[in-house]
Amino acid sequence: MVKVEKVAGVRVDRTRNGICITGPVERTMVAEAALRGLWHGLQRGEGCTMAQVDGALRFAEGEQEPRLPLRDLPQIRTRRGTVAPRSPAQAAYMEILGKHDISFGLGPAGTGKTYLAVAQGVAMLMAGTVSRIVLSRPAVEAGERLGFLPGDMKEKVDPYLRPLYDALNDMVPGDQLTRRMSAGEIEIAPLAFMRGRTLANCFAILDEAQNTTPAQMKMFLTRLGEGSRMVITGDPSQIDLPNGQPSGLVEAVNILQNVPGIGMMRFSETDVVRHPLVGRIVAAYNRAEERAEPAQHTRRGRGWAGEHAGPK
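Given the sequence above, the corresponding structure tokens read:
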């Protein structure tokens, strides 16, 4: 209740027959919508964690009448439980994942774009809709190179793929995950291993796609086989490729954004569902970059004029 009161700016009191919300009309509507959403979650057997309270408040704050009634929001069911959206953007993304053969999730870290894609893949595998899941990432991170890391190829690659393992561990019981990975039903591999393959009857996810080259992105997209789905996730503002190397994700979004059968969801810092500070950090960096861009344009403009103005 304290969280709802603080965020909504109202007072919530328990009464004999329920609760009483006191405050400005618009804010009481926000609090009521959030509490109703939490109640519907409890009726579905969900818990009431702080993360779920944050999610209910996001929906209520986003629109006083959400795009969907909170009881009708999309859900992804896995053996470990139900994965529900924690923001209106996540709800829209989950609908895209359910409808399109190829989906793009674009935006900053902490928006759930990869986690929800893994949840959708696990749900489809458990339901028998696909026969396997293939998870991939380019092995490019903050200027490091695989050759500098100790160990064999698996030991070199695993640190880059750890976020995918973490998401799987949240959704698939440990013994079952080990068994399915041994049987090849769940495969995690670096992007370089995808060349020459056809991904048929599978759910394929390419994570951190901003670090692909245009050639790598085209190669991955054209692996799509019969009965398969693909999800490509990444943050175009966090490219770790060498200077001057164009991002395959940025190019693909520009080329494919109006192609039928391809869905795209763009998240912003307001959709971050990690610690509240993460969203504020992303917003602060975005503001700093926006302030820096005019200065860079001004410097480039002056340099060009100085070089090409000719004799006075």
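The chain is about 45% helix and 15% strand. Try to locate this feature in the token string yourself.
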